[in-house]
Specification:
The complex is a heterodimer of chains A (171) and B (290). In chain A, 32% of the residues lie in helices and 18% in strands. With 171 residues, chain A is an alpha+beta fold. Chain A has 2 domains: 77 residues, Beta-grasp domain (Ubiquitin-like (UB roll), Roll); 84 residues, DNA polymerase, domain 1. In chain A, helix 2 packs across helix 5 and helix 4 crosses helix 5. Chain A is globular, with a radius of gyration of 17 Å. In chain A, 46% of the residues are buried. By secondary structure, chain B is of the alpha+beta class. Chain B is built from 11 helices and 14 strands. In chain B, the strands form 4 sheets. Chain B has a 5-stranded antiparallel sheet. In chain B, a hairpin with a 7-residue loop joins strand 13 and strand 14. The chains are: A alpha+beta (171), B alpha+beta (290). At the A-B interface, strand 4 and helix 4 of A face strand 1, helix 1, helix 2, strand 3 and helix 6 of B.
Chain lengths: 171, 290
Amino acid sequence: MTNVDIERTVTVTVNGVPREATVPVRRLLSDALRHDLGLTGTHVGCEHGVCGACTVLVDGDPVRSCLMLAVQVDGRSVTTVEGLARDDNRGGQVLHPVQEAFRECHALQCGFCTPGFLITIAAGLEKRDNTVELTEEEVDDMVGGNLCRCTGYANIKKAVHHAAATMRDAG
Amino acid sequence: MKPAPFHYADPGTLEEVLAVLGQEGAKVLAGGQSLLPLLSMRLAAPATLVDINKVPGLDAVEATGDGVTVGALVRHNALLHDAAAARVQPLLARATANVAHPAIRNRGTTVGSIAHADPSGEMTSVLALTDGHVTVAMPSGRQTVGWRDFFVGPLETSISGPAVVTSAFFPALPPRSGTAFAEIARRKGDYAVCGAGVVVTLDAGGRVASVRAAYVSVGLTPEVHDLTDAVIGQPAESADWAAAGALARTLVDPDTDIHASADYRRLLVGVLTERTLVSAAAEAVGRTAA
């Protein structure tokens, strides 16, 4: 018999850590991350897939967390902006090259859209062959689905190039 | 806003999906990239969502000499990068490249977009332009429905009762033919103000034999317009594509909305038709020579 539920318990690996939450089935993934798991780095802007602020990785691919239900990530792996930095094995953390580039290039002002940009760009750069020159068109395609209303896109695009260069040099 | 409360099921077989869909107010959830916004904006409030993501066998793209069959769970991004599908019917990759943004294409399904029947969707027009059909599973069995019978109105198809569109079939590009697809949008990845897909077919002598076009965000349901009369028999390299664009403008019946007036959309139909035909004709010439 098929289970037709109003509430479910979801087990999901978030930033490498197994987590569990019991949620109403209508809970959006974005809200589950923020309210049920306390990861408020994922921002919620438009809540209908336009602004890109809530973008997270599900099994490595960028998706809008406001356009997925929390129950749909049961058994899967989610990466949020909190999972981008790496441990430096001395009790601290090292920023991801994209985070570092955003700081370097002043690619954020109010910061609301930033988590979505960071996740989207990190995934975009990690998936491509970094020995091939990054074109402006590729950069536009990468950031075109995220809305920023403070800095404009010039510095964000600069940061994409900066991060790409760092990642290429790091091999 | 948040979706209104609903019940949720994610069965592992099509039979179970159809059984739950038999309940009052049940709706299919595939990629959810159109459905979830509708739920969050409370434009839709189904009693039950039936998630088909756990049904096996619906995620395949099969390209044969006849055409490309796209399963109900194939994401836009998978179709966009399917080289075999692009060889058989180049419009598929060209059109999916215009569907929203990468993060949306990672979840959104091509078949779901067709079943959603939004006149501003790219893939509804491509199904029409290629003269494709969908396969629908119902408790009584499977049925094939051609695009003309499938699209009834904006966000409305001819399918009712418990049913799931399990695949869409896009016939292969005919020999001596070329295609192109282009859109004008306010921002890259936004819904198109106007989009155009075209297929040009040449005769054995390299002269225009057939020209067909379908548009995005123009009209209430997908339509295919025959523009052959404007350029029939002309050499592909020097055909009067502007005349075909002018003919297209007289055939379409676009609406006015906050993004564009009907007149502006009609103008774009002419511009995009001419622009895409030039590139489709060049491709047809190349494929004829090869």
